Amino acid sequence: MDPITEPTVNGLNRVAGRAAINRANAQKSTGPRTEAGKQRSKMNAFRHGLTGQTVVLPAEDHSAYESHSKSFLNEYHPKDATETQLVQSLIDTSWRQNRAAAIETNLFSLGITEMEDHIRVNHPEAEAALAMALAFREHMRAFANISTQSQRLARQFERTLALLRQIQADRRAAEERQLEKAAKILKMHKAENLPYHPTEDGFVFSNDQIETFLRRQNRSEQANTHDFEAHG
Question: Are 190 and 196 in contact (CB under 8 A)?
Fold first, then answer.
């Protein structure tokens, strides 16, 4: 074996050996066993709570998250997979925004509690203000990180909301155009006393939906006529 090939083979063998050892160790691992280890593992979720994939953390209320989700779904009524995904993004991003605000408040409260015994000016409001200032100074990096993540989440929320609104506006406009076409055909069939099946023309609307659209159109035309006569 030449001097170039031999080190290469030996190196590959060492890499393969290390990989086998790592796999064996991974199989033996069952996660943290002590209470301290379990607490550190739980805190990993909190550490990545603003940026990671964990949406509802162990200490948070799952029913509150469900209620939070329902409020967005009731507001935006997503119609397809894309809209549903965008609404889900709004739900999770706003949940993280709320968490960031809560963490900031809790951090201030913790800092004030820690610092209040170090300040004595015989004025409760002044003591609270100075304790808050000391808390901010002691945890400046943490507050800066919360602010950075809050701004990032706010930008993400705004972009997602703008995209969702545009997609839904485009969908509604397309539905309106399709309803206008279906309404014309339905009126033609009714004038000839013929039954009409919208699906035969590729429409996804029912006759009831088309009838509702026609009634809305008529009401709108009546309102326009009334407005014209009132100002004529």
Answer: yes
Q: What number of other Cβ atoms are within 10 A of residue 176's Cβ?
A: 11
User: Does residue 72 contact residue 91 with C-beta atoms inside 8 Å?
Assistant: yes
CA distance linking residue 145 with residue 47, whole number of Å: 11
CB 230 within 8 A of CB 205: no
Q: Indicate the domain borders of the chain.
A: 63-230
Q: How far apart are CA 103 and CA 114, in angstroms?
A: 16
Q: How far apart are CA 108 and CA 1, in angstroms?
A: 68
Tens of pLDDT, residue by residue over 6-32, are: 444 444 344 344 445 444 544 544 445
pLDDT band at 144 (very low <50, low <70, confident <90, very high): confident
- 115-142 burial, b if ≥16 CB within 10 A, otherwise e? bbeebeeeeeeebeebbbebbbeebeee
Query: Does the reported pTM lie above 0.90?
Result: no
**Dist CA 51 CA 44 (whole Å):** 12
Tens digits of residue pLDDT in 145-182: 888 999 999 999 999 999 999 999 999 999 999 999 99
DSSP 116: G
| Residue 54: pLDDT band with limits 50, 70, 90 | low
What count of other Cβ atoms lies within 10 Å of the Cβ of residue 81?
8
Q: What six digits make up the tokens of 76?
A: 């935006």
